[in-house]
């Protein structure tokens, strides 16, 4: 199935997206969840193939994709809207709701990758550059334990 | 510098995030931009280190991060708000504006990775699963060249 | 029916929300659409009664309502996401889609009124104050025909 | 000053937008805040004049205004992003922050009114119609004290 949309998938098709056995407690060993092996380029390529196969390039202008992303963002927010504060690992949500969260953040990510491509921006380089810029904007010695905006450190 | 926030960066620190030489024309060879080598786990690890060094875990509850993502989304939208329709590669924007777009989509992506971690969701697996689900929801033979919602194909 | 949710409605219950006869052309007489008589306080009161009758106050914390508003915003954006640029009066949309737009902007407005109330902010006064501030930020002689940010005029 | 942007303002120009004396306690008499006298049409007219004076109609296409609204939404979310849950009346925020909230919800409202006008939708009628529809979707006897989606009541 996946062969249609990506060459050489490195992750199984119907995985359990939730961290196994994670309980949300302070000393849970699974707390520092790792992501499975997948590159930004893998996602870009999968998405490119998906869209080409369906002849959808015509619809994916930058602002169309931008608004599509807002739409997915709204769907994600709806899951949380009446929940009040929720804890790490989302123990307050049902398993269906947690699965739904995984679907919506995936949709946002796929559109984000698509948007970067439409803008001819290398998302990998952009992220590295931004992380470096953030490190300068928020020096460890000044920003430690503070939620201030970076302008307060200048 | 980068050594502080990530072990073994595979991309240069101050890169030109924009695809070189891309001109926006239909037959531009650079059109099918590739992303540089970077994995979702690389980004997760960079972000985890960044936050730990600053003792910011206390602020990153799931809904806090969700709202922070909405904030970045707003900043991205502001760049496009008075532009009318824009073309692939954003030739209508200045170079500063294109760089700004790269910064904002990076911020969204970093928060998205952070949010997935807080939710204990393996974003790599979630994306693969969603791409497979999308392929089923939008069969090529029915969805070809159509912008309908998937419910129209059921 | 409406008597349940508001005292003394000044607008019919099932109105045609779309401007009659407006054709989208440059010289259409209906172009300067007027809104029917309704005050912000009317909407606040309607919403307050609606929520009290359903014992929903417990769910309407400020951040819950904020996320609910993001959700409605996403639904509005979805209507426009694959449309490309659209014209005044939305002639490119079907009548059902235009009606849907009316529903979503109403949901956003109702949540906005609710949010202001939860924050103990007098939305009427706030709007008047902001319009006055905007007039100062964008002096007519400098901002005429310009889409610049206000910081360019300081 | 205001005479430039609206004829016959019914609210003072530089008001205190915050409810006087409200303390956030359960039995505060000011809890049921009322909005000052202002109609949706007043806001529409103010905004129309503001834009005409600056020759800005050319920028206010429906999707431009939609994205501008997303931008303001982001600014509102930023105020709340690191706050955790906040209480009615926003006692956890500084007075400057509360004032800022008033500015951002005003910006959202002004763009919403502008957007409705561009779509040729009578926002007053649309809101009344949506409140009536909501009352049918969420019958008091079934929805009392429940945060379910309306589809659960059908």
From TrEMBL, chains A, B, C, D:
<dbReference type="Pfam" id="PF12643">
    <property type="entry name" value="MazG-like"/>
</dbReference>
<dbReference type="GO" id="GO:0005829">
    <property type="term" value="C:cytosol"/>
</dbReference>
<dbReference type="GO" id="GO:0000287">
    <property type="term" value="F:magnesium ion binding"/>
</dbReference>
<dbReference type="GO" id="GO:0006253">
    <property type="term" value="P:dCTP catabolic process"/>
</dbReference>
<comment type="subunit">
    <text>Homotetramer.</text>
</comment>
<keyword id="KW-0460">Magnesium</keyword>
<keyword id="KW-0963">Cytoplasm</keyword>
<dbReference type="InterPro" id="IPR025984">
    <property type="entry name" value="DCTPP"/>
</dbReference>
<protein>
    <recommendedName>
        <fullName>dCTP pyrophosphatase 1</fullName>
        <ecNumber>3.6.1.12</ecNumber>
    </recommendedName>
</protein>
<dbReference type="GO" id="GO:0042262">
    <property type="term" value="P:DNA protection"/>
</dbReference>
<keyword id="KW-0378">Hydrolase</keyword>
<keyword id="KW-0479">Metal-binding</keyword>
<comment type="function">
    <text>Hydrolyzes deoxynucleoside triphosphates (dNTPs) to the corresponding nucleoside monophosphates. Has a strong preference for dCTP and its analogs including 5-iodo-dCTP and 5-methyl-dCTP for which it may even have a higher efficiency. May protect DNA or RNA against the incorporation of these genotoxic nucleotide analogs through their catabolism.</text>
</comment>
<dbReference type="InterPro" id="IPR052555">
    <property type="entry name" value="dCTP_Pyrophosphatase"/>
</dbReference>
<dbReference type="GO" id="GO:0047840">
    <property type="term" value="F:dCTP diphosphatase activity"/>
</dbReference>
């Amino acid at each position: 199935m996946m062969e249609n949309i990506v060459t050489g998938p490195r992750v199984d098709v119907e995985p359990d997206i939730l961290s196994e056995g994670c309980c949300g407690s302070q000393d849970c060993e699974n707390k520092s969840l790792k992501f499975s092996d997948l590159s930004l380029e893998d996602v870009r390529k999968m998405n490119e193939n998906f869209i080409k196969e369906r002849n959808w390039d015509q619809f994916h202008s930058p602002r169309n994709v931008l608004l599509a992303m807002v739409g997915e963002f709204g769907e994600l927010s709806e899951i949380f809207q009446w929940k009040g504060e929720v804890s790490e690992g989302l123990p307050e949500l049902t398993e269906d709701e947690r699965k739904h969260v995984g679907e919506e953040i995936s949709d946002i990510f796929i559109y984000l990758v698509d948007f970067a491509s439409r803008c001819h921006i290398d998302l990998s380089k952009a992220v590295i550059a931004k992380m470096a810029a953030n490190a300068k904007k928020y020096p460890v010695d000044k920003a430690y334990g503070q939620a201030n905006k970076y302008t307060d450190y200048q």
